[in-house]
Amino acid sequence: MIRLSDVQDARDRIAGRVHVTPVVTATLLGERMPGAPRLFIKCENFQKTGSFKSRGALNKIDRLTDEERARGVVTVSAGNHAQGVAWAARAAGVRATVVMPEAASRAKVEASRGYGAEVVLHGKSSIEALARARELEAERGFVFVHPFDDPLVAAGAGSVALELHEQMQAIGEQLDVVVIPIGGGGLIGGMATAFAELQPGLRVYGVEPEGAASMRGSLDAGQPIKMTCVNTIADGLGAPAAGALAFEVVKRSVRDVIVIPDDAIARGVRELLVYTKLLAEPSGAACVGALLIGAVPDVAGKNVGVVLSGGNVDLGTLAKLMS
Amino acid sequence: MIRLSDVQDARDRIAGRVHVTPVVTATLLGERMPGAPRLFIKCENFQKTGSFKSRGALNKIDRLTDEERARGVVTVSAGNHAQGVAWAARAAGVRATVVMPEAASRAKVEASRGYGAEVVLHGKSSIEALARARELEAERGFVFVHPFDDPLVAAGAGSVALELHEQMQAIGEQLDVVVIPIGGGGLIGGMATAFAELQPGLRVYGVEPEGAASMRGSLDAGQPIKMTCVNTIADGLGAPAAGALAFEVVKRSVRDVIVIPDDAIARGVRELLVYTKLLAEPSGAACVGALLIGAVPDVAGKNVGVVLSGGNVDLGTLAKLMS
Fold first, then answer.
1. Model-level pTM?
2. 8 Å CB contact of B315 and A270
3. What is the CATH topology of the domain spanning A4-51+151-322?
4. Which of A185, A230, B231, B317 fits as disulfide partner to A238, beta carbons 3.0 to 4.6 Å?
5. Mean pLDDT per 10-residue run, chain B (323 residues)?
C-alpha cells in the first residue's frame, strides 16, 4: 500500500521536471451535463509526453540503483506509459525497451522512439505484449517498470491530486466530487490515496469503458481479476487486469466505479474540443463522457473535478471520432 | 488612429469580463520549425466565445449611449465577431443582429444564436453580407459595429498585446518576434499599436492566407484595397478589405506581412493539435503555419510569440483538415 506521504515524496522528487498542469473551468461544457455541475478540468494532456504517465515513470526510474540503471528498463504499454518511461529513462541516461501491441497508436509508437526507447511491437493485445515484456525481463535482465501496479508509479500519478487540491484552494474553491479514469488503476490508486487524507469528504468516482471494465469486475468478484479480452477505443484504459494495489485503494476510498460505453467516450472527445478547445485522447475524455450521459450520481450544482489524463491520439483516429 | 492609452483604457473597461488567457510554451512544436524558435502561444481560443473578438465587441458595446443601446446593433461576420457581438450585446441588454454569409460555419451560426443574436444568413461572401448589414443599419436604425475598422474594436483587440507583454515579463522572458494573423486588421492594428510603445524593438509580422491577402495587396498598392473575391479555409481571415486604421498601423509598425497557402494553415491546425493539444481554427493556426514552413524571417533561437486567435471550427471541417 501507499500513503499520502509517498505521494508527497513523489511530488518533491519530480518537481521542476514535470509540468504543474493547469486546471481549466469549463462553464459551457458543464451546462451541457445533466445537473449542470461546475466543471474543473485537470489538464494532464499538457503534461510532459502528453499524459500523466510521465509522473510515475520519472518517480520510479529516478530511484533505481546504479546496478538497476546499468541493466536498463523494460515495460509494456499501449503507449502513454511507454512514452513516459522512454522520456524518464532518457533523462536518467537509462536504456529503455517498451513492448507495445501491434495495433498500438502510430503516434504513440513514433513518440516513444522519438524519446529514444527501443520499441518492440508484439501481439494482438496488451495481454500478449505483457507476456513478451516479462520474457525480455527474464532473458535480458531488464528492470520491469509496471505500468500501474507499482507503489512508486502510483505515488507519482497521485501527485496529480496534490496539485489539483492546491490549485482549487488557490482559487478559493473546494471540489465536491472528483472523477478519475481507470486503466489498471495507477492514477486512481495514487489520487484516491492522497484525497482520502487531504479531503476525507470528497466523493471519488472511477470510470471504465464497457469493453475493459477490469476494476468493476474485480469489485464484483471481490478480488482482482484478469480479463482474457479487451475492446475499447480508449487504448489507455485497456489494461486487462486491475492492479492489486489499486484494488485495495478503490475498495476503501472510492465511492463507485462507473462503466460507460465507447460512444460516450467519443462524445467526450468531441465536446471537449468544441466547448473547451482541449484535445483529449479517448482515455482522457472518459470522465467527461460519463458526466455528459449523466452516469455520475449527485452532481447537480456541485464542484466536479475531472482528470483529462492525456491527449495522445492519432489524427486519423481523431477524424473518425469527429463523425 | 489609436494609441497605447486607448488600448489600456479598453483593457481596464473589459477587465474581469473577459479571460486573461494563458501563454503556453511549446518546445516540441518550436523544434519542428526551421530555426527552432522558442515558441510562446497566446491562447485566445480559450477566450470568452472562443476567440479574441469578445474583447473588441465588449469594449465597443459597453460604451454605447443609452440612445444607441435602445436602437440595437448590427454587424457582419464570418462568425467570430458575430459571436463576440452577440455575447457582449446580451451582457449589455442590447438587441443584436448579425449578418453572416450563407456558407458560414454552422458552429458559429448556432453559437451566435445561442448568445441571443438574430442571425441573418445572406450572400455568397462577406462582401454581400456586408452590403446587407449596411442596408439593415439604414432601414432599421441599428448601430453598425464594424468587425475591425473601428478604434474601439481595435483597441479592445489590442489588449491581447498588453497581457502577452506582462505575461512574458512575469516569467522573466522577452519576445524578439510576434506573429499576428490578419483578416481586416483589427487585431494587428491594436496589438502593433500597443507594442510600438511598450517594446519598440520588437519585430511584428502579420500573416494572411494567399486567397485573402488584402493587407499585402494594400501595402503593395500604397492604399487600402477592396477585393472582389476571397478564397481560403481560414474563414476568420477572409475579410475582403484592409481596414484604413489597420493599414496605417501596419505601414508604420509592422515589419512585414507574410502570405501563406492554405495547406500551411491546415498543417498549423494539425501540428497544434498533435504537439500542444490545443484546438485552433484555421485562422488561429495561420501564424504557426507560417513558422512551420519557414516563412517568418530570422527566428533561429529567438523568442517568438504567436497569437492563437480562435478555436471555433466545425467538427466536420476539422475532420477534413486531419487528412
1. 0.94
2. yes
3. Rossmann fold (3.40.50)
4. A230
5. 96 97 94 98 97 98 97 95 97 96 90 95 91 96 96 98 98 97 97 98 98 96 92 92 95 98 98 97 98 98 98 94 88
